[in-house]
């Protein structure tokens, strides 16, 4: 795996970049990571009406809750909330009607391992797995409110949202739970150099020791950590929706490496490993921006107008096409940079 030097270019104040190690135990009287008495998870900035024609092409209409691309099978997967379902598009024939697959409930997150898509449906307490190209759905009832699921070797790791823990689902045998220190487990990310969990309520990230079965140290992730993705350098990239920033953390050890200002309501994020581009949606501006993250600080390479309320974004690493989902009923946008 390619690794960056331990660069630490910081453009914003580091108040809040504090390490937590067990300070949320019963004996603790303070919490360095909690920024308000009653924390509320960051939400995307409300988008204005579109005044510039969205770049590329727009597929259909309706609201989108998540998007993902399986480059192995050239499949675009779009989750729509009403009715809860998936729309599967052939990336080589986008003009063709999509295949529709009904789901149990609204999707909070889609994550892809080549040929497999993990589908978290929190309101129904279910995680489903879609295999491609055979389009077979397999469900796992987790209970609670699973917010995100990833494939991790032979296991699956499920971030259990308000359950405040990570569920480890092995291919065979009983599941186990890893908890501690979390207020909410909203996403789990495999960086290739360690597993990190995103906690939106504490606006923080924590490293997870799977072998020991515990949540390790944590760091504040800005003022409103929203979404996270792994890059090619053993890091997790996080959008800060409240302060308007793109953060980068190494996973082993957990250290903030970069904090770069991104005004305009930074929210959704996707990563193109082929081109080392992080795509960030700006919901307050109806834009998506592509940053080259290979160097000591992100470098803007692309900026495109989007559909209204671009809460979700994905990327086809084969072609470089960027997929943006509108949470305001304006469909799915496909952009070729």
TrEMBL record:
It comes from the Bacteria. SUPFAM superfamilies: NHL repeat. This is Lipoprotein. InterPro entries: WD40/YVTN_repeat-like_dom_sf (IPR015943). PROSITE patterns: PROKAR_LIPOPROTEIN (PS51257). Residues 1-26 form the signal peptide. The keyword Signal applies. Keywords: Signal. It comes from Amycolatopsis rifamycinica.
């Amino acid at each position: 795996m390619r690794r960056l030097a331990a660069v630490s270019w910081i453009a914003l104040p580091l108040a809040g970049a504090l390490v937590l190690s067990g300070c949320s135990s019963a004996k603790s009287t303070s919490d360095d990571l909690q920024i308000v008495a009653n924390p509320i998870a960051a939400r995307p900035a409300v988008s204005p009406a579109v005044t510039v024609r969205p770049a590329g092409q727009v597929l259909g209409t309706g609201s989108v809750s998540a998007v993902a691309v399986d480059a192995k099978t050239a499949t675009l997967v779009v989750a729509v909330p009403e009715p809860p379902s998936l729309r599967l598009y052939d990336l080589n024939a986008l003009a063709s009607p999509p295949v529709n697959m009904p789901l149990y409930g609204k999707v909070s997150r889609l994550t892809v391992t080549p040929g497999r898509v993990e589908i978290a449906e929190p309101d129904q307490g279910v995680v489903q797995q879609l295999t491609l190209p055979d389009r077979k759905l397999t469900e796992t009832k987790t209970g609670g409110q699973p917010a995100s699921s990833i494939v991790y070797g032979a296991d699956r790791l499920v971030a259990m949202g308000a359950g405040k823990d990570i569920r480890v689902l092995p291919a065979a045998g009983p599941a186990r739970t890893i908890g501690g220190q979390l207020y909410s487990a909203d996403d789990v990310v495999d960086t290739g150099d360690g597993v990190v969990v995103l906690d939106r309520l504490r606006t923080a990230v924590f490293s997870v020791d799977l072998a020991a079965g515990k949540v390790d140290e944590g760091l504040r992730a800005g003022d409103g950590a929203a979404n996270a993705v792994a890059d090619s350098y053993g890091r997790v990239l996080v959008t800060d929706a409240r302060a308007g920033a793109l953060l980068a953390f190494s996973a082993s050890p957990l250290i903030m490496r970069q904090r770069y200002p991104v005004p305009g309501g930074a929210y959704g994020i996707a990563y193109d490993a082929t081109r080392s581009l992080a795509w960030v949606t700006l919901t307050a501006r109806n834009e998506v921006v592509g940053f080259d993250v290979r160097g000591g600080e992100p470098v803007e390479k692309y900026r495109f107008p989007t559909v209204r309320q671009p809460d979700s974004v994905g990327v086809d690493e084969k072609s470089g096409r960027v997929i943006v989902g509108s949470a305001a009923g304006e469909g799915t946008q496909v952009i070729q940079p």
